[in-house]
Structure formats: structure tokens, C-alpha cells
Amino acid sequence: MTEPGWRKLGLLAGGGDLPLEILRAQTDRDVFVVVLRGFADRDYAGHEQTSRSVGEIGGIIKDLRAAGCDAVCFAGYVSRPDVSALKMDARGLIMVPRALAAGRKGDDAVIRVVVEEFERAGFAVVGADSLIGQGGLPAGVIGDPGLVETHREDADKAMLIAAEIGRLDIGQGAVVAGGIVLAVEAQEGTNAMLERVAGLSEVLRGSPSNRKGVLAKRPKPIQERRVDLPTIGIDTVERCARAGLAGIVLEADGALIVDRDGVEAALDSHGLFVLIEVRA
């Protein structure tokens, strides 16, 4: 459980813009950044920081304590690493058997092992959504509401498929166009999935002049919601646009939007929509 009243945040920064969004939002709190080597791809100059491998769990905890942190947030994209090639310290090595056993069940099981390790070390684990003021992403439409009904059936089916693969702890996303499942997300992540869709025939996926299809992203039923919530940003919209898709559907209170103003501008530029709905 997230503890109230923490004083200083340690931000474990993976890839993408979400860690920077969190830093921008923390105007009244100190933040110490742990730049995760091999994954972080943004510039954190000007922020108190260290750089660590994801396998250096003991080193990360030591750095966090030395910086006076009593809370941690995991933010940004981190794919499952190659353990054999990973730089690890003693605490990381001790975790390997548990992480490998959990990994056979799926990514969310691995995430829970990591979260529990930091909680055992005495840190409060804070969700990114609460730090950027999206502790409850409300239902609604961003973009042209008229487009939603045109693509309603694809949105509903994509959310159903995303729920099913989430139940099996496979991934969080799916793309459906004209009732056909074009792609589901697994280890490659959303960006690579959208690149695969962009490589399909425009007969299946649509085009900038004849958009069709919807990307759905939703949490897994067993999701550790303080970590790895489905996230979209400007890059997601641009990739959907290149793939000829018409829109994106998210679960209310179950997703993050990075740079909301920028996302709205990108949607308007390409004529796409984002639908945020309450889903069972």
C-alpha cells in the first residue's frame, strides 16, 4: 500500500516521456532520479541523479537511502532484460530465482516481485498517476465525438481482446479494424506492435485518407496499478496515425496520458480520437 506523508521521492526512470512528466509535476517536492541504463532515453541533466542497471537492486536501494528517499515511483518503459547479460549485484542475484519463477507466470508477476523488494526495504511505492494528477482519469472523448460512433464496434472488440490477453498476463493492447484483429501486444510493446500494423496492407488497416481501426489499451485484471499502467503520449498518436488508425480507446481510471495538451494537438492534426470509457 502507498503510504501517505512521504518526504522525498526516488524516481526509477525507464524509457519515454513519463519520468519527465512526473518531474515537471513535482514543483514542491525533491526528486532523486535513478536513470535505468539501457532503458532511459531522456536527458535528466539538472536533476539529482545516479545511473544503475536494473539488476543492481542493492545499489539502487543504497543510492535511494543515501539521497534521503522514503518513497519510490517506477516510471517509463522497461522491457524484460536478458538476465545472462545483465550487470547484477548481490541483492539482484538473490532476487533472480524469485524473478525467474514469477516470469513464467507473466510480466505482472515479475513486477510484483520487484515492488515487494522495495517495500521490504522500507519504501512507499507511489503510482505515477497520482504524481501527475491523473489518479482518476475520467471518462470522455478527446477529439471529435462523432468519430467514436463510426468506430464503436472496433473499439468494443479491441477492448475485449485487450482484456483477454491481459487476463493471461500477455500484454495490455490490441488493434482491431473492420472487426478484424490486426495485432495484439506481447513482449515487443505498443510501439513495435503499431509498427507491425503500419506494415500491413492499407486494405486491412486504413490510410490517412480513409482511417479505420482502433488501438485499445487497458490494465490487466491482475495489474499492479502503481506500476506499468497503460500509457499514451504524442508518440502513440503519431504511430497510430502512420498505421492509418482512427482512434485509441482507454479504460477510465486505468491509463495515463503524457502531455495532454500535446496529445490533443496531435489528435486534431491527424483527425484521430481518444475514447476513455468505464469498462467492466
Features:
alpha/beta, Rossmann fold, Cytidine Deaminase, domain 2, six-stranded mixed β-sheet, 11 helices
Chain-wise SSE layout:
Layout: E1 9-13, H1 18-25, E2 31-36, E3 49-52, H2 57-66, E4 71-75, H3 90-103, H4 107-120, E5 124-125, H5 128-131, E6 140-142, H6 145-150, H7 152-167, E7 173-177, E8 180-184, H8 189-198, H9 202-205, E9 206-207, E10 210-211, E11 214-217, E12 231-232, H10 234-242, E13 247-251, E14 256-257, H11 260-270, E15 273-277
Parallel strand pairs: 1-2, 1-4, 2-3, 4-5, 11-13, 12-14, 13-15
Antiparallel strand pairs: 6-15, 7-8, 7-11, 9-10
Describe the structure.
It is a single chain. The protein is built from 11 helices and 15 strands. It is α/β, with parallel strands linked by helices and 280 residues long. The protein folds into 2 domains: 9-131, 3-Layer(aba) Sandwich (Rossmann fold); 140-277, Cytidine Deaminase, domain 2 (3-Layer(aba) Sandwich).
